[in-house]
């Protein structure tokens, strides 16, 4: 499976998360995952909450349309975004 999978209902992203970074950003591909850095620390689920909020802004969907499918306690995550309103240019270039 590739880092980004486009389905009829949305996008599935395989993510390598880098918490406690200096800024929120999509770094690019890292092996078969999309590397994303976020500023939140990996404590008490703060990184997961921040990641979903960040993706919500990028894809212009409510947080309820983003589902963390795998990796709740891991840096390797799988996220499904239902019906994204917009797709960031960093993602379009990788599809």
From TrEMBL:
- What top-level branch of life does the organism fall under? Bacteria
InterPro entries in the cross-refs? DUF167 (IPR003746), YggU-like_sf (IPR036591)
Pfam families reported in the protein's UniProt record: DUF167
Task: Provide the Gene Ontology terms for cellular component.
Answer: cytoplasm
According to its UniProt record, which protein family does this protein belong to?
Answer: Belongs to the UPF0235 family.
The family database entries (PANTHER family) matched by this protein are listed as: UPF0235 PROTEIN C15ORF40
HAMAP family reported for this sequence: UPF0235
Designated name of the protein: UPF0235 protein EV692_2276
